[in-house]
Amino acid sequence: MSEFDAFQRFKDAFEDERGDYEPFQHGDRHGSNEWTWCKKPRGGGNDLARFVVLAVTPEGFSPFYRVEIWAGADDGESFVRSPFASFEMVDIDGLRGESLVTSVKAALQCAAARANSIRKHDLTTRRIPVASG
Fold first, then answer.
1. What's the pLDDT score for residue 67?
2. Are 112 and 19 in contact (CB under 8 A)?
3. Residues paired with 119 in a beta bridge
4. So what's the pLDDT on residue 32?
5. What is the pLDDT of residues 53-71, one digit of tens each?
6. I need a surface site. Which of 15, 28, 34, 112 has the fewest CB within 10 A?
7. Residue 15: is it exposed, middle or buried by C-beta count within 10 angstroms (0-12/13-18/19+)?
8. What are phi and psi of 120, to 5 degrees?
9. What does 27-85 look like in DSSP terms, one character per residue?
10. Exposed (0-12), middle (13-18) or buried (19+): which is 58, by Cβ within 10 Å?
């Protein structure tokens, strides 16, 4: 089983119970194989786009991987993205294991609950405006 196969198992486990979160992006981000799910705002001035991120990153030239889960929200002007859970030093056999899949699935569900609890005043980083002209 490859890193991608293991990653697919994590993704599939969350897909079954993701609620309002829709697959948003998948790909390489700074060396990590990353999936993002997004819950779009429902309207009404104070709602936020919320997201959950799952990343599997090789640890340099070692046979180990880091599995990370992030939660966040965005209003188009400001955002917050916080680490939620991390599973360090996982080898390929660990990526295959049902116990890790179960743990990652539970962490993804808790990260979604955390993202759902974020309010506008929790957004700590402002986007830098793009200069026109």
1. 87
2. yes
3. none
4. 78
5. 998 888 878 778 888 999 9
6. 28
7. middle
8. -55, -40
9. EEETTEEEEEEEE---SSTT--EEEEEEEEEE-TTSSEEEEEEEEEEE-SSEEEEEEEE
10. middle
Amino acid at 116: N
* pLDDT surpassing 90 at residue 18: no
Q: Band the pLDDT of 119: cuts 50, 70, 90.
A: very high
Compute the half-sphere exposure of residue 107: CA atoms within 13 Å on the CB side of its CA. 21
Tokens of 1: 């089983």
d(CA 101, CA 82): 21
- CA gap 118, 99 in Å, rounded: 29
pLDDT on residue 35: 86
- Burial environment of residue 4 by CB neighbours within 10 A (0 to 12, 13 to 18, 19 or more): exposed
* pTM to 2 decimal places: 0.80
